[in-house]
From TrEMBL:
PROSITE patterns: C_TYPE_LECTIN_1, C_TYPE_LECTIN_2. The chain crosses the membrane at residues 64-86. It comes from the Eukaryota. It is found in: Cell membrane. Keywords: Disulfide bond, Membrane, Transmembrane, Transmembrane helix. This is Si:dkey-26c10.5. GO terms for cellular component: plasma membrane. Residues 131-240 form the C-type lectin domain. Residues 1-25 are annotated as: Disordered. It is a single-pass type II membrane protein. Its main location: membrane.
Length: 243
């Protein structure tokens, strides 16, 4: 009887020991799993700041590069605009200078400029030449003396009156044809300007005043560039008007 009890106790003790060992193994396994998870979490947290810092460094680098590119682009745009502005100014000045130097020889432009007196590069209008307070037009079309005067009047002008050496030298130097001027012989035989003033200073070529209407010969010596011709002859003419 006692032997059976002892055997039961021994079996029970071994069984209890097995259960304890099993529980101990389970606890150790659980602790090991917790430690493993803790290590993984710790490792994960240790890596996160480095990745964030790397991202920040990349972001800062890209921001600096973008800022530098923006500055370079802005400088390039400013330089390009300045260059375009300079070229535009020079081009306008060049065109204006060429327009001012052109001496048109047909009547179309004066007809237009008479309607717009302020058009072109000065107040005289395109095709006209300004000298002091006067505007002059040197025609290439040929008309009689009276028809030439009519044409000048259509443009708000009249045949040129040369009353000083400055105007005489200017017109002689600019013209390259023979031009009617506002000088004719009156019924009394005196040379008179169209403004009814008598001729004072004259610039006749030798023996050139035998006809009834006066004309100016371009590209001659200013002191003797006048000639005369029958008033019915067809030649170019010079119109004059106030600026």
């Amino acid at each position: 009887m006692e032997l059976q009890k002892f055997e039961k106790l021994e079996v029970s003790g071994e069984h209890q020991k097995g259960e304890d060992e099993e529980k101990l193994g389970t606890v150790k396994e659980s602790e090991l799993l917790e430690k493993t998870e803790s290590c993984e979490i710790t490792a994960h947290h240790s890596k996160l700041p480095e990745e964030v810092q790397r991202g920040i460094r990349i972001y800062r680098t890209m921001s600096i590069i973008l800022f530098v590119l923006t500055v370079i682009l802005a400088a390039a745009v400013i330089a390009l605009c300045a260059r375009i502005n300079i070229r535009s100014t020079c081009f306008k000045e060049e065109i204006q200078e060429k327009v001012c130097d052109v001496q048109l020889c047909n009547e179309l432009y004066p007809a237009v400029s008479s309607e717009k007196k302020d058009a072109g590069c000065h107040r005289c209008g395109q095709g006209w030449l300004q000298f002091e307070n006067w505007c002059f037009f040197l025609s290439s079309a040929r008309e009689s003396w009276s028809r030439s005067r009519e044409q000048c009047r259509k443009w708000g002008a009249d045949l040129a009156v040369i009353d000083n050496q400055r105007v005489q030298a200017f017109l002689t130097g600019k013209g390259n044809l023979v031009y009617w001027i506002g000088l004719s012989r009156s019924t009394g035989g005196e040379w008179t300007w169209i403004n009814q003033t008598m001729l004072a200073d004259s610039y006749w070529a030798p023996g050139a005043n035998g006809q009834n209407c006066g004309c100016l010969m371009g590209k001659q010596l200013p002191s003797r560039s006048w000639n005369s011709a029958p008033c019915t002859h067809y030649t170019a003419y010079i119109c004059q008007k106030v600026v």
